[in-house]
Write a structure and sequence with these properties.
22% of the residues lie in helices and 36% in strands. The protein is built from 9 helices and 23 strands. It is globular, with a radius of gyration of 21 Å.
Length: 369
Amino acid sequence: MLHTALIKPLTPMSYMLADVIFSAKETVDYYQKPLICEFKYDGIRAQIHKSGHQIRLFSRKLSDITNTFPELANAADHTKLRSSSLTSESLSNIDFILDGEVMAFQRDKPLRFQELQKRLHKKNLSEQLMTEIPLVYVAFDIMHINGENLIEKSLRERKEILSSISFKKPIISSTYKLVSSEEEIIAMFGQSRDIGHEGLVLKDPNSHYHPGKRGRYWVKLKKELDTIDAVIVIAEYGNGKRAGVLSDYTFAVRDDENNNNDTSTLRTIGKAYSGLTDSEILEMTKRLKSIMTRDEGIRIIVKPEIVIEVAFDGLQKSNRHDSGFALRFPRIKNIRKDKSILDIDSLQKVKQIYEKQTHMTGKISNQTS
């Protein structure tokens, strides 16, 4: 197939994406079969490509981020096979494409995402910073090995191939287990959160790797009320000590059901003005002004490029935003420089969260604001 033929090391490829699910019971009822269950890591998704002694790392935006993580490139260059059953190539000449997550990691515990952000986009990465913020790359999938494209193999087969590779730290293979009951999923979810991860990713063992596709071959199980990845569309100047800086951000999700020429329509869902430090607001002001499309005095309209992860305490119906919903007490959890507008959440996800919230409380909120 054409898309398979185009997969080769050192050329970034689109990522397979996960859908969202809201409970262990919903997961078991939907799949009704054993699933591969892994921790959901709070880092940035990255591909590692190796061809001979050439190593490249690529972000979700398919940007080359090799220089940001030199220790990962060095470790990838020392990768070997545990056996030669998969290839007749020299063991020192293994080529591959990996899918995984980069995390700030210290003393067997993940550090907060904000720590990892301190290393992102640094033009001059010092030894001191690398020491202060050590990394781990958790490889959870493999799409290519020694000339063989693997995306049409089952995930179970890809996992077996991944287990045949001997990585040098800080690259490691993800740990996973097969689960088939609600109790097993709940127990592993608790273990994940106790360690400091976000939740779980559950995967169909028979699934192929679908580049650029989002579906229920993989699903994320995080919290009953999730965070939302949204894009900033309007920025307003603050008051008081924030006068002169853009500190209030209206953000939007995508409306896939009402698109125009295959381009998703954006629907606003809230406005946040808390969660960022003063220095982050100054940096954000510069970025926003650089992508301004219209100046309206107290606010500016911007190109939808800056993705933020927004936490919130609840969700209600609202006439204030054209999505028909508003987040209650939204606050910016992270500026997701590793994500693009293609990665933001959908209005359908917002509706699912609202329905789940309504079911949990036993009430239907028809508040408008």
